[in-house]
Specification:
By secondary structure, the protein is of the alpha/beta class. It contains twelve helices and ten strands.
Length: 344
């Protein structure tokens, strides 16, 4: 039996659409501080009031940039999520250039899913951000696709199960944070944390898009409904792939795009052209449509992208387009189709 989502009261209408922090951590290319500031300002001016970031993005760079902008805004006017599980330690002998070649970071990363580790991570993030509190905390990349973990993900999960998870629940219950969950690119950790702990909201990255959504619909969403857990949906464009990027999702093999994904994107493009629909717009709205989707986050690294993202969420996509996708089997018959959001 479905339960009401425990984090629903946090994600008010003005926080349903957010800016993701990956591009402003110089994940894909060099973005200057001035360009990052302009992107944040354009997002704010367009009505965006939810911001998601992580120590991992640029090994501290994205948090510093977000903080530089957000500490000038009234704290109660925006929602902020960041991530734990990866501590940053500066060193003259660091792997920053190997991990984030465009970020110019002096930091190494140390994975730590213990209670002490996540408390340290939150304190470090607060200092980089220059703000007094974090609303939502995601335990980051505790997942089988994380090849940088020092031991199998299942062993790290056991550490979190006895360390990070209960510590975050205690912080939530004491009012230090408002909600927590995991932020991962694969379903297994989400299903486990839902069943074995008490998260509020999880970051569902690279798992619910026009290209890939069936497993989430059939397995992840029913489990979430049963336990009252909602989702922030990320990477609805599969790391830009649906919008035309030459990569698919994240990781070392992101350039090795599955031929089936390319073929599906081509079919989606053809139907979008037939109905006069911008495929990127449709993809964003599709990922925000499920009842368990509390918010959608989308990255941007230019003012043009920031404005396009916001515009996409308020653009009407004709019902006939969605009907045609279902008729041709390109989206699941049971997949909810969207209505445009209203940004504050």
């Amino acid at each position: 039996m479905a339960r009401s989502m425990r984090a629903e009261h946090i994600f008010k209408s003005e926080f349903r659409f957010g800016l993701g922090g990956v591009p402003l951590g110089n994940e894909f290319e060099v973005v200057t501080d001035e360009e990052a500031e302009a992107t944040l300002q354009a997002s704010w001016d367009a009505g965006v009031r939810y911001f998601d970031v992580s120590p991992w993005y640029g090994l501290g760079l994205a948090e510093r940039r977000f903080g530089r902008f957000l500490h000038r805004q009234p704290r109660d006017s925006y929602l902020l999520s960041t991530k734990v599980g990866k501590l940053l330690k500066a060193s003259p002998h660091n792997r920053g250039a190997a991990l984030f070649p465009y970020a110019n970071s002096p930091n190494n990363v140390v994975f730590d899913y213990s209670a002490d580790g996540i408390r340290r991570s939150i304190e470090d993030s607060l200092q980089r951000l220059g703000i007094d509190r974090i609303d939502v905390v995601f335990v980051h990349d505790l997942s089988p696709d994380n090849t940088l973990l020092p031991r199998p993900w299942t062993e790290e999960f056991e550490v979190a199960l006895n360390g990070a998870f209960p510590a975050l629940s205690k912080m939530r219950d004491e009012g230090t944070i408002r909600a927590w969950g995991v932020g991962v690119n694969t379903p297994e950790p989400i299903l486990r944390v839902i069943r074995e702990s008490d998260p509020d909201v999880c970051l569902l990255a690279s798992q619910y898009s026009l290209v890939d959504h069936v497993n989430a619909l059939e397995n992840v969403f029913p489990a979430a409904r049963e336990h009252g857990v909602g989702f922030v949906v990320g990477s609805s464009l599969n790391a830009g792939f649906i919008a035309g990027s030459p990569r698919y999702n994240y990781g070392d093999r992101r350039w090795d795009i599955p031929p089936a994904a390319i073929a599906k994107r081509d079919k989606l493009r053809s139907i979008a052209d037939q109905y006069g629909v911008d495929l990127r717009t449709a993809a964003l709205q599709f990922s925000a449509a499920p009842d368990v989707a509390l918010a959608l986050i989308v990255g941007a690294h230019t003012t043009e992208q920031a404005l396009a993202n916001a515009t996409a969420m308020t653009t009407t996509v004709p019902p006939a387009f969605w009907n045609e996708l279902k008729r041709q089997g390109l989206i699941a018959a049971e997949a909810p189709v969207p209505n445009a959001l209203e940004l504050a």
